[in-house]
Task: inverse folding
């Protein structure tokens, strides 16, 4: 049986430093933004590099205490779960298993609780479903603002009436749960997951949505910047009109 193929590294020491020290990247977000991007790029092996670095060193190169490590692990896992809403469950599964492989057994015991801190099991089994759907609708409307009704109507009238149902379920049960990642932090996950997929129509909505949720213009641009740098390090590029196929973007990546 052939050994697994080895790919070139995406996350270099200089890129790690750039992301961790970027002056406008919101606090405690760089590592899960990077992990989300790498999940969509299908490089769970590189997520391990980011995760290990985040667990070992803070901005001052000082050791990260155990409580902070637990926080980093929870936020990273939550980001990858939320990324599944726009990037697909298979990649999220592979990413989460890659994280598990690099977490020490005693550390895992602290982040795999009997009752997950998100409370999603309670959402599913103990709470009136209409309350969860209403929460999701409110979250959707906050992201999309004055165009929320039009965006949902587009999905409801797409020719597959259940497309709107999928959106309502994702927003209700996955995205609107802000127990670990708040509104703007959730938007950063969606931005990081959409840029590698070359889907400008959706990306534009979530760049604005991050601002609607409370992020500053500088923060949104900083998140976009580090995602772009990871993608370019992975080999993505602006595709030329003469390119029949390729890995990159067919037009300039949306920005604010």
Result:
């Amino acid at each position: 049986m052939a050994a697994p193929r080895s790919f070139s590294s995406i996350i270099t020491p200089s890129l790690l430093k750039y992301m961790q020290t970027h002056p406008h990247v919101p606090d405690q977000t760089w590592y899960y933004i990077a992990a989300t991007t790498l999940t969509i790029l299908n490089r769970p092996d590189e997520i391990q590099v980011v995760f290990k670095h985040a667990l070992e060193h803070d901005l001052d190169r000082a050791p990260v205490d155990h409580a902070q490590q637990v926080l980093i692990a929870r936020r990273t896992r939550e980001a990858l779960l939320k990324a599944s809403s726009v990037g697909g469950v298979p990649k999220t599964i592979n990413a989460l298993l890659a994280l598990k492989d690099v977490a020490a057994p005693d550390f895992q015991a602290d982040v795999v609780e009997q009752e997950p801190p998100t409370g999603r099991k309670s959402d599913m089994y103990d709470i009136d479903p209409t309350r969860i759907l209403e929460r999701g609708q409110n979250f959707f409307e906050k992201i999309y603002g004055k165009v929320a009704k039009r965006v949902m109507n587009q999905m409801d009238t797409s020719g597959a009436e259940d497309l709107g149902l999928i959106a309502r379920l994702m927003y209700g049960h996955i995205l609107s749960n802000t127990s670990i990642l708040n509104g703007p932090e959730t938007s950063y996950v969606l931005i990081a997951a959409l840029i590698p997929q070359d889907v400008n129509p959706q990306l534009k909505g979530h760049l604005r949505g991050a601002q609607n949720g409370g992020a500053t213009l500088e923060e949104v641009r900083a998140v976009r910047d580090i995602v772009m740098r990871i993608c370019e390090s992975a080999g993505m590029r602006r595709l030329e009109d003469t390119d029949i196929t390729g890995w990159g973007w067919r037009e300039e990546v949306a920005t604010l």
Notes: The longest strand covers residues 237-238. The first helix runs from residue 13 to 21. Residues 164 and 181 are 24 Å apart (CA to CA).
